[in-house]
Amino acid sequence: MLMGENFKKLSCTVCAALMLPLGGGGEIAQAEEAAVRTSNIYYQQVDAPVVQPAWSLSIARPKVVDNLEPVTAIAENGKVFMMQPNGKLAALKAATGTKLWEFGSQLAQRMVYNNGSIYGMTSAGALYKVKEENGSKVWSAALSYGAADSITVTGGTVYVTQGQKMAAVDAATGKIKWRIAEDPNNYYYGSKPQEAEDVVVRNYAVSGAITVSLVAVYDKTTGTKLWEASRQQAPLVIKDGILYSERELFMLDDDPVNRKIRIAAFNLRTGTLKGERTYSWTDKAATDGVYHGGGSYSFAFLNGNDLYIHQGQRLALYDFRNYVSGAEPVKKWAQESYDQRTPLGLVHQDRIYFTDENSHGLIAMKLATGQYVRFDQGENDSVQSAVFGKGVYVGQSDGLLHAYDLMSTKPVFTVRTGSREFGPLLKTGDMLLIQSGGKLFGIKLPASLK
């Protein structure tokens, strides 16, 4: 009987304990409400099958100390030419990753392919040429351009630049034709050279009270400077002895409402001004009191005979061949979110391309409809993007690479690289080459993206 009484007392004690509020006091505890709460209803995960690489190999990591755009791999004719971690150049079969040959040592991360040969630089600054088929050296030219920033092969001449310096080398023999160097205290940046109609053209940034753009024209045979013009952008086009170039109007005509672009026409050999075109439009007033120029606010580029001008709220198309002062555009489109986008100045598959200034994602505008399509679908920032044919490839900061169909915008496949780093994406034949985290991956593309 005593045990039964004790059991009843214990049971009552447990029940009473369960009825007491948690913690001290007499109030029942409640979940705390968040002081701030947000959600992204537009987020969508990219839903695509994950594919495994056909092969992968170690590749040299890009070195950006001397150059902001190192080249560690190029792909041509079903082959990949890559810089190995040991500083040697290797040729691979793109389909299998099989090594075909090796060349050199202590090579710089700078090379191009042209007409069956690879042209590259050594760390000591020598330009070399090797044959595509077997990697045998054709010639070497000592330039002392250890930090060369471009190699361009045009019409039998190899042009190599390093900052304000430029050299012209015979592509067949390796003989140095000429070398020039602009004053580094004044010309502190130079573009890739452009050869056209027996001249070579470069653009420079020139320092002074303000930094402005300058176009310089050199004789192709001797390297002699023929003329230069300050406040001129890179040529829109060079045709029939005329160089067309957009004027730089910053601090000359900063009217934020009545906007214009001026395109000067110069005699290619003498620099004589032959005429000037003006394309005008009206923009909305700047509410922040700051003048916004360039990019989507005012930027022109040519695609054949089509002159596209980004005009703030709109994108306008003009017939470049038939200029009429004050004429309205042939066609125009609303320029969506123009203050947050950077135009890339090109047309591909009847689309114009931009990058988002925040996510760095790729954006395409269909010329037929004016519809904008994004290829950064809410996951992570884009690190590298490329369009080959009808395939769009986006490497994200989470190590995923997504492939999309450009026409339908649907995701096709995903690759997990395991690294946040992405180098330039390459393609040859039906193989996509991904540089990521010190690895080179070969991905066989489906028929829909070939």
* Structural class category: mainly beta
Give the class-level CATH name of the largest domain.
Answer: Mainly Beta
CATH topology name of the largest domain, in short, is Thrombin, subunit H
Mean pLDDT: 90
Residue ranges: pLDDT <50 for 5 or more in a row? 1-20
Total count of helical runs of at least 4 residues: 1
- N-to-C span: 89 Å
- Counted beta strands: 37
Account of the 3D structure:
- With 450 residues, this protein is mainly beta.
- It folds into three domains: 68-181, Lipocalin; 183-335, Beta Barrel (Thrombin, subunit H); 368-450, Thrombin, subunit H, CATH 2.40.10.
- The chain is built from one helix and 37 strands.
- The protein has one helix spanning 2-19, and strands at 55-58, 73-76, 79-83, 89-93, 99-103, 107-114, 117-122, 126-131, 137-142, 150-154, 157-162, 165-170, 176-181, 187-190, 194-196, 199-206, 212-219, 225-230, 232-239, 242-247, 258-267, 273-282, 299-303, 306-311, 314-319, 331-334, 341-348, 351-356, 362-366, 372-374, 382-388, 391-396, 400-405, 411-416, 426-428, 431-436, 439-444.
- The strands form nine sheets. Strands 14, 15, 16, 17 and 18 form a five-stranded antiparallel beta sheet that branches.
- It is globular, with a radius of gyration of 30 Å.
- Residues 1-20 have low confidence and may be disordered.
